[in-house]
Hints:
Strand content of chain A: 25-35%
CATH superfamily of chain B: RNA polymerase II/Efflux pump adaptor protein, barrel-sandwich hybrid domain
Number of domains of chain A: 2
Low-confidence stretches of chain A: 1-5
CATH topology of the largest domain in chain A: Gyrase A, domain 2
Low-confidence stretches of chain B: none
Helix content of chain B: 10-25%
Oligomer: heterodimer
Distance between the termini of chain B: 25 Å
Helix content of chain A: 10-25%
Radius of gyration of chain B: 13 Å
Structural class of chain A: alpha+beta
CATH superfamily of the largest domain in chain A: Probable tRNA modification gtpase trme, domain 1
Amino acid sequence: MLARESENSLKTTPLHALHIKRGGKMVPFAGYDMPVQYPAGVLKEHLHTRGSAGLFDVSHMGQIVLRAKSGRVENAARALERLVPQDIVAVAPGRQRYAQFTNDAGGILDDLMVANFGDHLFLVVNAACKADDEAHLRAKLSDDCIIEPLPNRALIALQGPKAEAALTKIGADVSAMKFMDAGPRRIGAYDCFVSRSGYTGEDGFEISVPAEQAEALVTALLDDPDVLPIGLGARDSLRLEAGLCLYGHDIDTTTTPVEAALEWSVQKSRRNGGARAGGFPGAEKILSQFDKGAPRRRVGLKAEGRAPVREGAPLFADAASSEQIGKVTSGGFGPSLNAPVAMGYAPSPLAALGTTLFAEVRGQRLPLQVAATPFVPNTYKR
Amino acid sequence: MTTLYTSDHEWLRIEGDVATIGITDYAQSQLGDVVFIELPKVGRSFQKAEAAAVVESVKAASDVYAPISGEVVEVNDALVAEPALVNSDADGKAWFFKIKIADKGELGGLMDEAAYAKHTA
């Protein structure tokens, strides 16, 4: 009975019944009962997404509307810039940008997507952080902004080379969208917010849809033999091959955007010498790391052997040294590469591409090479 | 030839004083796609319940425990080369290693096919 009670305390998404019907193997994830895989299995689901199209339920993630009390989206953008090191003012209507909420120590509270929907901003945040993010927004921005979470909308991702065709078949006109375009769009009978982005390294879309319409939309997409439902297992192996960070693993409150090798996501306007330099939590530390470098960096790691090196494995500079220099933060087997891949943190002097590091796995030191990410080239439609 | 099972989802085929050991079809279905196998060295001795091999799926690593004490007399190198054999033929070609049984008394604690079927039901 105890087990049952704890199962009952898990939240479900609007697509829960469909996951069960499709044979999803359900596991607890960020407080939700979610499919880790379907009968096809992680390997086939992964390869199907890269070769055709995969459909993911990401309704556990947080969707938040940020609206300026003035009614002007620029004011919402300026307000949000107080919490993130990104240039939000420059995000044009119909466009989306990757961002991080930082803390006073320069660490990352969460990573998120910010879209400009014309008269307001639309934010997508991680499931495990969404309550804290909402509280953070309310605490810091309530003077200027209205913060409106959208718990009654589902979120799905359709990823892979056949994603556009699958959407076109059900009446969506998305062919003109480019990578990181985003906005409200009708798909057939459904009132959606669509962005051309995702978490797999593939071309694809994320679609927010009212909860009561979610099952019908997903069923229509899954009627297409090119589209398979994909669980959290393949979502993780796909994002790892794409070199994308998983919050709570590769980035967290102890890692700065510079240490996390996310400098590309911080526009020049927010760095020293920029038009709106600083003004976000932890700016002093983060901007000084831009100028002077960080003591450690997130790096891609490729194993020389076949053994997967997983999260938590300690890293060493050589095969014998007793001094741990870093650790693996994500790792596993990359089905498209047919080889193990990992990410982790290493001291900056040992973070150069091609450097050999050693991970300790079951008492053995396995050689790894610092490698460029993404491990698998991305196929975004630019 | 007798086939016995452990509660950790290993099977043992007993031929004389040698046991061939693998993981069950039920175990492979729970693990998912196997991508890496690490086998013990021939000549290594294990106590019962000691970790003897590693099987990794895309998602996770699992230990395979020596179901009985004894010395490894042969390992299945074909399995290291093709880990997916575990998914396609867990009960047959995907055997892991053979142990020279140190104490036949330990076999008494293992399950027969009917008991194992009940265990996984």
